[in-house]
């Protein structure tokens, strides 16, 4: 049972983590209106990455506008002292405060606010009359036994002159939901009171993704599915030259048109079981259960896992994804450095009568003529559905487990998809904000991107602009997403 304490304009609640709501926080309406005016006159900078999109002011620590200076002094003076006494914690005089503007499609996705020194977060809302249908709510998440966010259990709708406080902790997962109003501005002052951090339990480590060797399928599957242009050896050499120069390439009209149309139509069938992929501090999208895929989609899945396709990728990229592709000096240097394969590798498939020939191939792949043991190329993949609210986020565990890898994305059903909807894949350097590459979804365009251990990727939040103009229904698209390892 959870107890909520209500005292006039003050509400205290410990579920899902300790937070406090104080309505009519500032007694003078004139002061609040002048504060709002000064804040709106500030210079705001566009902020956008995997986690958020909104506008933020410069640091308010030294701003001299009278009402900004007054609220800063009040919050980090007497109010900080009172709050420290209530919590029984010595809060530091560190001033950490800024102003944020959230407008249509702006969002701040699920996170816990934990950075060294942050003890209590605060938000003071300076918004026009606001309803839940406008979006922009402060959503609080429950957590599971591993301290991972689970589901939204409370949503706080912004309200004029209302202060929200919450304790920063390993379970203080929250988000600012996407602003859906096209004519309102969600203006707020926010920051943190600093003090001794709460003890954090060991971070939960997700199970390693299962990786699979190729399926025993010969070149017949390529002849049935792939645009003949890409099976021409001389054209493959041109592709490899471009790929080796840029580490990425997009191959348009990759599948035969009739095969592409067949898979596109099949992906819209109601019989596919779509499973939500979470937790929300790392990802939010739907992935198909392979067992529920229609036959043509399943065959396309097998195409991307086939031995013939591994060899085709080797020809496109020069990477050693098949024993027939020779190793170069760079491969050998990297293998010496990274001789221990991360993750698990599934057992060799025995589902086909041709598995004996595959076993022979695997044996050849396992040893070079010089007798040196090589790792067998493997892959992992999924069929994904993207719609309003979908995204993936960068996270520490991903950076720690990063490997050299070849990413493949093959989209379906995005003929009317626009860049402003989101849903594109961004590549960034680890611990850097600059985007190295953006891959936009394009029908039947096979994207190949080679990344090293310092390159990470995320899918940008699919925003409300993806909704159809005449209804609340969201546009959606699908893709096959595979990762191949030498």
From TrEMBL:
The reaction(s) this protein catalyses: [ribosomal protein uS12]-L-proline + 2-oxoglutarate + O2 = [ribosomal protein uS12]-(3S)-3-hydroxy-L-proline + succinate + CO2
PROSITE patterns given in the database record: FE2OG_OXY
Functional note: Prolyl 3-hydroxylase that catalyzes 3-hydroxylation of 'Pro-62' of small ribosomal subunit uS12 (RPS23), thereby regulating protein translation termination efficiency. Involved in stress granule formation.
Keyword terms of this UniProt record: Cytoplasm, Dioxygenase, Iron, Metal-binding, Nucleus, Oxidoreductase, Vitamin C
GO CC terms: cytoplasm; nucleus
Positions with biased composition (Low complexity): 346-367
Listed GO MF terms: iron ion binding; L-ascorbic acid binding; peptidyl-proline dioxygenase activity
UniProt family annotation: Belongs to the TPA1 family.
InterPro entries hit by this protein: Oxoglu/Fe-dep_dioxygenase_dom (IPR005123), Oxoglutarate/Fe-dep_Oase_C (IPR019601), Pro_4_hyd_alph (IPR006620), TPA1/OFD1_N (IPR039558), uS12_prolyl_hydroxylase (IPR051842)
Single GO biological process annotation from the record: regulation of translational termination
UniProt-listed Gene3D superfamilies: q2cbj1_9rhob like domain
Compartments it resides in: Cytoplasm; Nucleus
Reported cofactor(s): L-ascorbate
Pfam families according to UniProt: 2OG-FeII_Oxy_4, Ofd1_CTDD
Region span, Disordered: 330-376
Organism expressing this protein natively: Gambusia affinis (Western mosquitofish)
Known partners and oligomeric status: Monomer.
Recorded superkingdom: Eukaryota
Protein name: Prolyl 3-hydroxylase OGFOD1
Main subcellular location of this protein, as a coarse class: cytoplasm
Location of the Fe2OG dioxygenase domain: 93-195
């Amino acid at each position: 049972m959870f107890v909520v304490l209500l005292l006039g304009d003050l509400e205290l609640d410990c579920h899902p983590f300790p937070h406090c709501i104080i309505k009519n926080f500032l007694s003078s309406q004139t002061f609040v209106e002048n504060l709002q005016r000064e804040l709106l006159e500030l210079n705001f900078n566009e902020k956008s990455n995997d986690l958020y999109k909104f506008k933020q002011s410069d640091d308010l620590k030294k701003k001299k506008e009278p009402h900004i200076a007054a609220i800063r002094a009040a919050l980090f003076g007497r109010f900080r002292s009172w709050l420290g006494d209530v919590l029984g914690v010595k809060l530091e005089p560190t001033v950490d405060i800024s102003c944020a503007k959230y407008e249509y499609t702006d969002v701040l996705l699920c996170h816990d606010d934990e950075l060294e020194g942050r003890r209590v977060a605060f938000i003071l809302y300076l918004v026009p009359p606001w309803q839940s249908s406008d979006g922009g709510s402060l959503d609080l998440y429950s957590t599971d036994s591993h301290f991972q966010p689970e589901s939204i259990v409370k949503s706080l709708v912004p309200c004029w002159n209302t202060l929200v406080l919450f304790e920063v902790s390993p379970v203080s997962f929250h988000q600012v939901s996407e602003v859906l109003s096209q004519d309102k501005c969600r203006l707020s002052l926010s920051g943190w009171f600093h003090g001794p951090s709460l003890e954090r339990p060991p971070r939960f480590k997700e199970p390693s993704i299962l990786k699979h060797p190729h399926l025993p399928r010969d070149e017949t599957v390529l002849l049935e599915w792939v645009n003949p242009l890409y099976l021409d050896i001389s054209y493959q050499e041109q592709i490899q030259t471009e790929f080796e120069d840029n580490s990425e390439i997009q191959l348009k009209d990759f599948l035969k048109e009739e095969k592409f149309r067949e898979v596109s139509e099949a992906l819209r069938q109601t019989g596919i079981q779509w499973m939500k992929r979470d937790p929300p501090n790392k990802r939010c999208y739907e992935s198909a259960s392979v067992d529920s895929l229609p036959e043509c989609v399943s065959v396309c899945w097998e195409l991307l896992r086939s031995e013939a396709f591994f060899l085709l990728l080797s020809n496109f990229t020069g990477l050693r994804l098949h024993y027939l592709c020779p190793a170069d000096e760079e491969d050998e240097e990297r293998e010496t450095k990274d001789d221990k394969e991360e993750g698990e590798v599934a057992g060799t498939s025995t589902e086909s009568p041709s598995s004996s020939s595959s076993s022979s191939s695997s044996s050849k792949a396992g040893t070079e003529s010089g007798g040196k043991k090589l790792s067998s190329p493997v892959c992992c993949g999924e069929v994904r559905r993207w719609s309003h609210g979908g995204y993936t986020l960068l996270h520490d565990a991903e950076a720690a487990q990063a490997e050299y890898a070849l990413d493949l994305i093959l989209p379906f059903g995005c003929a009317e998809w626009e860049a402003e909807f989101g849903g594109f894949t961004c590549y960034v350097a680890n611990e850097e904000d600059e985007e190295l590459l953006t891959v936009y979804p394009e029908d039947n365009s096979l994207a190949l991107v080679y990344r090293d251990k310092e390159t990470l990727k995320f899918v940008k939040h699919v925003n409300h602009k993806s909704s159809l103009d005449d209804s609340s229904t969201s546009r959606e698209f699908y893709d096959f997403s595979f990762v191949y390892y030498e």
